[in-house]
Write a structure and sequence with these properties.
Pfam families: DNA_processg_A. Belongs to the DprA/Smf family. It comes from Candidatus Harrisonbacteria bacterium CG10_big_fil_rev_8_21_14_0_10_42_17. The chain is an alpha/beta fold. It has helices at about 5-20, 25-35, 35-45, 50-60, 75-80, 110-125, 140-150, 170-180, 195-210, 225-235, 250-260, 265-275, 285-290, 290-305, 310-315, 320-335; strands at about 65, 85-90, 100-105, 130-135, 155, 185, 210-215, 235-240, 260-265, 340, 345. The protein has three domains: about 1-60, no CATH class; about 100-275, Rossmann fold (3-Layer(aba) Sandwich), CATH 3.40.50.450; about 285-345, Arc Repressor Mutant, subunit A. It has 16 helices and eleven strands. The strands form two sheets. It has a nine-stranded mixed β-sheet with strand order 1-2-6-5-4-3-7-8-9, sandwiched between helices. It has a two-stranded antiparallel ribbon with strand order 10-11. Helix 6 (about 110-125) packs parallel to helix 7. It is globular, with a radius of gyration of 22 Å.
Amino acid sequence: MDTKKDNEAQSYNALAVALGGDYRKLATAKEKYKTWERAWEQEQRTNNVSKEREWEKLEKHNIKLSLNTDPEFPELLKEMPWQPHALYWKGDGLKSNESRVAIVGTRKCTPQGGKIAREFGRDVARRGVVVVSGLAMGIDTNAHEGALDERGKTIAVLACGLDTTYPKQNETLAKRIQESGGTVVSEYPPGSEAFPGRFIERNRIVSGLSQVSLIVESPKKSGAKATARFALEQNREVLVVPGSIKHPNYAGSLELIQGGAGLAISAEDILRCFGDAFVAPEYEQEKALSDPVQTVIVKTLQQSGEPLTVDKIQKLSKIDLITLNQYLGMMVVEEKINEQGGRYYL
């Protein structure tokens, strides 16, 4: 056990509780005292918070804490302005070698907007991209659900402490995310309520964790627009699903397009933003890996990052055409790969 690191984490947690998770007060304390341990030694005199009891609460709720100086803290967040001092998380840890897209939009989405968000969630998860969103009703919920439909990974960023779930209606969804290998994260300590201002603060982490942000249905005044603004400040890609100029749910979306945001009408538009940096997932189906021909096919599709025709697969894999057609048909039936319009993908 790294005692010094453990003391820093426990001291930060106690101080965050004592200061109500206030980012600026925490920043001032760190700047003044240089370490969280020294800051807590000074600040504990003015409050009744117990460092040990607060740490026990994390353990009780299976909440982990990573400081922004820890090796496991996401590199993408270290690159952004106004980076979190720390992240609380539950579920699978946040890996650095992941391709992630934030899919966000209005809580009061149209049925069509919800369907579009879910389809994008499915399509990118099928290709191994991690879906990041805010667990809110509407677009966020559909994006998370879409990733789960494909047994993909999704990350939910909350505006409250992880000892509770906001909104309460999505408590089951939060559990499903964790059970499926995903992660629920927050910069706020347990006991923190979802105050209005925290949703905007939360949005910078949604975009900060992602290389690309996709906006689906953003009204003129919308948290999704704030997410897009943060993404641009973080030098990340912003894509927008276009919509009717007559519908208020697209007023903010169209403003973003006018401001230079890219258009997205399919998952391929998102994948292109990753370019050579796209990280294909490890293929986990042991049945596929037990057969050498299937293994070659799977690796060929992984490395491409986009749907391929039979001819393209044959050219890249060097498998003879008759054998390849037999295997592709069998793998589609066994749901090891997918086919649409004569193109194959994971």
